[in-house]
Amino acid sequence: MDIHTAIVIRNGVRVDAYTSSMSEGADDFAAKVASLISGSSVRVSDASGSAASADPRLAEQLQLIVGRKLSQFSVSRFAIRLAFWGEDIGSVSREIQVEHETLELRLPNSDRTASLDRDDPVAVTSLLSALSQPVIRLSVDDGKLVVELKGGLVIGVDSDEHYESWQINSDDGLLIVCAPGGELTIWYPESQS
């Protein structure tokens, strides 16, 4: 039995998600969700659970962020968003959104890692000092996301047992979601699905 997750997209924005652990195929599931939602498009995930973590396309997608400079970040009550724009007009923009309440930060020139609330002034100041620094390492292991920037800042985000902890998305349709419990659900760009 496969688990399928479908996202509902309205006007280019993800508005809802549905999950099925039934024995129906992905196309049948997508058709069922589409029949419930009018005026929206439906995409069924390409990989989920332990299969997603082992999918070689995941490593390829993560590698596309390595070398990109932190172009912008924003902090809200519920999330931190890190944006990595391309250096030329034709390149695909990629973003990491952190919804977990705490971040593990290792500051430049330090061997210690601190666990901070995402809106802590130290976390925000650290991100400000990291603007324009390229990503030198990006990894996902058992639902934990680690982003290392050239200036020495390392950001770690654990999975959460009850909520989506983080996600990575891009202009070309990529969406990687760390689901509750640390399992990944992935929608690859349309050209790779």
Task: Give me a quick take on this structure.
17% of the residues lie in helices and 39% in strands. With 193 residues, the chain is α+β, with helices and mostly antiparallel strands. The protein is globular, with a radius of gyration of 17 Å.
Query: In order across it, which strands form the biggest sheet?
Result: 4-15-14-13-7-6-5
Q: Which overall shape is indicated by the principal axes computed on the Cα atoms?
A: globular
Characterize the biggest β-sheet. Answer: 7 strands, antiparallel
Sheet/helix structural class: alpha+beta
Percent helix: 10-25%
The number of helices is 4
Proportion of residues in extended strands = 35-45%
- Written as H for each helix and E for each strand, in order along the chain, the element string is EEHEEHHEEEEEHEEEEEE
Cα gyration radius (Å)? 17 Å
Please, what is the average pLDDT?
85
Structural account:
The chain is α+β, with helices and mostly antiparallel strands and 193 residues long. The protein is 17% helix and 39% strand. The protein is built from 4 helices and 15 strands. The protein has helices at residues 26-36, 50-54, 56-63, 121-129; strands at 4-10, 13-20, 41-44, 47-49, 72-75, 80-84, 94-98, 102-106, 113-117, 135-141, 144-149, 154-157, 166-170, 175-178, 184-187. Strands 4-15-14-13-7-6-5 form a 7-stranded antiparallel beta sheet. A hairpin with a 6-residue loop joins strand 8 (102-106) and strand 9.
